[in-house]
Design a protein that fits this description.
This protein folds into two domains: about 100 residues, no CATH class; about 250 residues, Rossmann fold. Helices cover about 25% and strands about 20% of the residues. It contains ten helices and 15 strands. Strands 6-5-4-7-8-9 form a six-stranded mixed beta sheet, sandwiched between helices. A four-stranded antiparallel beta sheet has the order 3-15-11-12, with no helix packed on it. A hairpin with a 4-residue loop joins strand 13 and strand 14. The two termini are about 25 Å apart.
Amino acid sequence: MKKILGLILSSGLALTGCTPDTGFVAAPSLSQSNSPNGPGGNPGVKFVDQFTVPAAGSNAKIDVLFVVDNSGSMAEEQTIIGNSFSSFISQFTQQNADFHLGVITTDVDSSPSKYISSLAGFVNPTGPGNLLTRYAGEPYLVNSTPNLLSKFPMNAKVGTTGSGREQGLNSLGYFLEPSKLAAGGANAGFIREDALLSVIFVTDEDESEAVASGETIDGRIGRIVNRINVVKGSASRGFRFDFIISSSAVKPAGYPAPSDPIPLVMSGTNPYPGVYRRAAELTGSQIVNIATNFAPDLANLGGSIVTQGQSEFKLSAKPLASSLVVVLDGIAVPADAANGYVLHAERNTIELKGAALARAPGKVLNVDYSISVL
């Protein structure tokens, strides 16, 4: 079971609080550890992530969800996704990965009629966060989907008439609603408990709102991460975010702090991706610049995702390296690039190597650490 912020893995303790300024749920018994957390050695918060390592000989299971901006400026970027898809998915097919592949948009505040009209050509586009497909009976695509290389680019072309107030994280929250994931729901069957969940956000503007929800930047990020951890359950392989965003945009004066509400934008553009940058910071996620031809970067992300699905485990938050305690099936694993574990700070994963990896299949991996951000 992969849980966030100090949930004791087998104690059954109820979660009763949230850390200040975030939506990350914390167990009170561990919310004030003695581990240093930043300058001055202030008390930090303990995380404990637990993963079930796939059994020997099993193919990596990966559920890939693209969250694609469908506002007026995104036609070229959607074309790049389609044109680079064969290079992206080849990373999966070459390694015989068992994948699910879906698409949702960043539009959550259009009226129901506008939502449907802006997604003409899709099968039953009935609401925000619903999987989008142009092919009846195929809400998402899999390894065996006929004509996969032509179908996904068509699904990724979600148009440019959606809301100009992009809400990729909030849309993911809608996607994860229990009613949508339950049998008969719009997204039923997509998320598998024992698969790595990979979410790729593709948007050229920041998360914003027209009407204040009262949710802070960190609160929204925390809400989504906590919901993922609940959904993934006891056999979790964890999750990863990747952000294809306007990373070269200049931060405007007076941009909200993480503890401030989600930015309100009534008109005009909002290119500085402060909310997504913060989400990447908190979760140790990769950022790609959408202002360039990101096709090679998308292919590289595909390779990274498959590698993670095979031997790497994504941590829920960015750790202090010195605080890491890695335990496999009750036995401590050393920090050792030959026969232990390696922390890949750039993608916030633990990779098992050599002897540790050889004895890992079918076992439980615990990673205990203090956070370096928040």
